[in-house]
Write a structure and sequence with these properties.
The chain is mainly α and 574 residues long. Helices cover 55% and strands 2% of the residues. The strands form 3 sheets. It has a two-stranded antiparallel sheet.
């Protein structure tokens, strides 16, 4: 319809009028001078928005997603949103470069990468630069300066650029012309040996907490050794020793190292690879001494924490050695008496702490020797590798030689793996006990199932035997003679069912409707009723030789299954 309307309009416009003379063209008027509208607002400069960069999904990929089902909202306060998130006009930054008084050339004191590093740190932390410099110079924390701040400042000076440091030390201009980044570096570079001083100041503030932590870890080690000296653990060791001697074929031993406890799990049964010697031991101890199994399970977590304790104590020992060396170097390179006095006090505290740690480690070594000593047979882990690195660092500095480095590192590894071996052993006992309980429960369910099956079969057998007995009882009923029937007293009037017309019973439908002229013995219920009773035949009821009607002696045996159902009167009448 739209197309037809358009075509009609075009045809009407194309056809010229056929009547009248065309009018002459009108005189064009002079152009009007445009005047600015009074109510139209002048276009304002667009504000620069803070960009929100979301990771876009292609349009094709949104067809089968939730974004294909949602619609955008019409924001009523769009102007407010734009105003709120538009960038503010920033004041021009001061140039990082500084103009020299002698010439107008810019001098760069540090690189752009360095400025970015310092700028990120200053943007995330708020502190007084004067208090930081005062704390480092006087070797004491002031006001807002704490250990956390010092730990963030220290990496900024781990690799000093001598060119950068020299540029700030030689700068003679006003600090007002410097940026915040340049002021930070300008003041801290005037602290001698700033990296070492920050490290020692952190150590000075932490040494008291280090001593407390070491004391707590040492008490946990003492408690662990008390558990190892308990009666349950001694019973466990005795059981392991007796099993080992039983399997050693005559070569008995009086003790063993704890590093060989892992062999109990590796010693597999030849007939069942899922059953190890430790499975057998736990199974028997669960029956005889269940308290031993409970002792092992309860100490799994304890010896897991003890590994952390012994690793912490041993890591503090080489660290204190290194701090003593740093204090001695700092004393040689600094003439400030106040600072030297603080260093001497710190040195005395460090020596006393180091001596106390040494005594604690000697006590631990004596306890380990009491339990048969220990040699490391476990693979390296992160803890042993870290301990070895700490002693190698002292060797690289020159504090110890290679022999002492290897001896100390090996001794630390032996202490650590002593507790690690026990933790693995107790953990294996816990796993094996869980496995045995599950296996025992499975066997119980299997035995219960077998008992149910056997009981079902027994009931079926009893039913079959009962059926066989019933059949045999029917076949072997007691033989009844006619004399016995004659001697029995006469019954009362017989039931209508016992009338002569209902003598025989059908095996399927009850009594057979036979009449009285058929002999009850000489005629089969399956033969013709009109047959002569005195004629010879083979009865399917196993009746004996043919009978005559004038036979007086009735002393014969009727072995038919229907014989017991004959009434006395019927027999006599016959």
């Amino acid at each position: 319809n739209i197309i037809m309307i358009k075509e009609t309009i075009i045809e009407e416009s194309s056809v010229a009028p056929s009547i009248g003379i065309p009018e002459p063209p009108s005189i064009p008027q002079p152009p009007m001078i445009p005047q600015p509208p009074s109510n139209v607002e002048t276009p304002t400069k667009k504000k620069k928005l803070k960009p929100l960069r979301l990771e876009k999904i292609p349009v094709i990929a949104t067809e089968n997603t939730v974004f294909g089902e949602i619609e955008e909202y019409e924001l009523d306060n769009n102007d407010e949103l734009v105003e709120f998130f538009s960038r503010k006009a920033k004041s021009p930054k001061r140039s990082i470069s500084i103009k020299s008084k002698k010439d107008e050339n810019k001098v760069e004191l540090c690189s752009n990468k360095r400025k970015q590093q310092i700028g990120i740190f200053l943007g995330r932390n708020r502190f007084s630069l004067g208090h930081l410099k005062k704390s480092l110079m006087r070797f004491k924390l002031y006001d807002s300066i704490d250990i956390d701040l010092l730990e963030m400042v220290q990496p900024l000076f781990s690799k000093e650029d001598e060119t950068e440091k020299q540029a700030f030390l030689e700068y003679n201009g006003s600090t007002k012309d410097l940026t915040e980044i340049e002021k930070f570096l300008y003041h801290l570079y005037r602290v001698p040996r700033i990296y070492q001083r920050i490290s020692l100041l952190i150590f000075k503030e932490q040494i008291s907490s280090i001593c407390e932590d070491v004391e707590n870890h040492y008490l946990e080690l003492v408690f662990a050794f008390d558990q190892l000296e308990s009666l349950e653990f001694k019973k466990l060791l005795g059981y392991v020793l007796s099993v080992s001697n039983s399997l050693s074929r005559g070569s008995k031993s009086m003790g063993f190292k704890f590093s060989s406890l892992s062999k109990l799990m590796d010693y597999k049964c030849p007939n069942d690879k899922s059953w190890s010697l430790l499975h057998y031991m736990v199974e028997n101890m669960e029956k005889t001494n269940p308290d031993i199994i409970q002792f092992a399970i309860q100490n799994v977590r304890l010896f897991s924490n003890v590994q952390i304790s012994i690793a912490y104590i041993q890591s503090m020992f080489p660290m204190l050695f290194k701090k003593l060396w740093e204090i001695s170097i700092e004393q040689q390179n600094h003439p400030n008496l106040e600072y030297l006095d603080s260093l001497k006090q710190l040195e005395e505290i460090t020596r006393d702490t180091l001596f106390a740690f040494k005594q604690n480690l000697e006590v631990i070594d004596e306890k380990i020797i009491y339990f048969g000593d220990h040699s490391n047979q476990l693979p390296d882990n992160s803890t042993t590798i870290e301990l070895r690195k700490m002693w190698e660092e002292l060797k690289n500095i020159g504090l110890i030689n290679d022999t002492i480095c290897k001896e100390r590192a090996q001794r630390d590894e032996d202490r650590f793996t002593f507790f690690a071996t026990l933790e693995i052993f107790f953990n294996d006992i816990q796993k094996v006990n869980t496995f045995n309980l599950a296996r025992r429960e499975k066997n119980k369910q299997k035995q219960s199932y077998l008992r149910r099956v056997q009981s079902t079969k027994h009931i079926e057998n009893e039913n079959l035997e009962q059926e066989d007995e019933n059949e045999n009882q029917q076949e072997l009923e007691p033989l009844v003679s006619i004399n016995e029937i004659r001697r029995t007293p006469k019954k009362a009037s017989p039931h209508p069912r016992n009338s002569p017309s209902n003598i025989f019973q059908s095996p399927l439908k009850g009594r057979s409707p036979m009449r009285t002229y058929a002999s009850p013995i000489g005629i089969s219920p399956f033969s013709s009723p009109m047959k002569d009773a005195s004629s010879p035949y083979r009865s399917p009821l196993k009746a004996i030789s043919p009978m005559r009607s004038n036979q007086k002696n009735l002393d014969f045996v009727i072995d038919s299954p229907f014989s017991a159902r004959l009434d006395r009167d019927d027999v006599l009448n016959w």
